[in-house]
C-alpha cells in the first residue's frame, strides 16, 4: 500500500484502526470466533486471527496502537521553525550572493552548519514538503540584468543571426 508524502498513517487513521481492534476485543470477550469478527468488522480473516492471538496473550492492551512506524526523524520541531525562518530570509543572508535561489544542496549545507547534522537531498526534500514548502521554478533573470543591453541584443544581434 502506498501512502501520501507524509508516509505511514496519520494519528487519526491510527486511532480509527485501534478502535476497530478494540471492538474486536469486545467481540472476542463475548465469545465470537475470528471468522465472525472478520465478517462483522469487514476485515480479513487473517487480521481477525492475528488480533485474536494477541488478545488471548495480552488482553485488550495487546491491540493498542504502537504509534507511527519507522525511525523518528532527526529533524527536531525547533529546527524546523528555525529553518523556515532562515529560508524566508533568502540565500544572500546566509552567504550565497551569486543568485537568489535555494537549492537542496544549499539547504543541506545550511542545516549542517547550524545543527551539525547531514540530511540526504531526498530526505531534506521530504522534510521541506512536510513543512509546506514546494519546488519552485525560478524566473531565470540575473539580479544584475541590464534591460537596455537585452533590448539592443534582441533587436540588433538576434536580428542579424535570424536573417542567416
TrEMBL record:
InterPro entries: Homeodomain-like_sf (IPR009057), Winged_HTH_dom (IPR025959). Residues 98-157 form the Winged helix-turn helix domain. Pfam families: HTH_23 (PF13384), HTH_33 (PF13592). Signal peptide: none annotated. It comes from the Bacteria. This is Winged helix-turn helix domain-containing protein. The lineage of its organism: Bacteria, Bacillati, Actinomycetota, Actinomycetes, Kitasatosporales.
Amino acid at each position: 500500500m502506498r501512502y501520501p508524502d507524509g508516509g505511514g498513517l496519520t494519528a487519526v487513521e491510527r486511532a480509527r484502526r485501534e478502535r476497530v481492534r478494540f471492538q474486536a476485543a469486545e467481540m472476542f470477550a463475548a465469545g465470537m470466533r475470528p471468522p465472525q469478527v472478520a465478517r462483522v468488522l469487514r476485515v480479513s480473516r487473517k487480521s481477525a486471527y492475528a488480533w485474536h492471538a494477541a488478545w488471548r496473550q495480552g488482553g485488550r492492551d495487546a491491540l493498542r496502537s504502537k504509534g507511527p512506524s519507522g525511525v523518528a526523524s532527526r529533524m527536531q520541531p525547533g529546527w524546523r521553525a528555525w529553518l523556515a525562518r532562515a529560508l524566508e530570509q533568502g540565500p544572500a543572508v546566509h552567504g550565497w550572493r551569486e543568485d537568489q535561489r535555494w537549492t537542496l544542496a544549499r539547504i543541506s549545507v545550511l542545516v549542517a552548519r547550524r545543527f551539525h547534522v547531514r540530511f540526504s537531498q531526498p530526505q531534506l526534500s521530504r522534510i521541506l514538503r512536510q513543512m509546506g514548502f514546494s519546488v519552485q521554478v525560478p524566473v531565470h533573470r540575473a539580479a544584475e540584468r541590464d534591460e537596455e543591453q537585452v533590448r539592443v541584443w534582441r533587436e540588433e544581434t538576434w536580428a542579424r543571426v535570424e536573417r542567416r
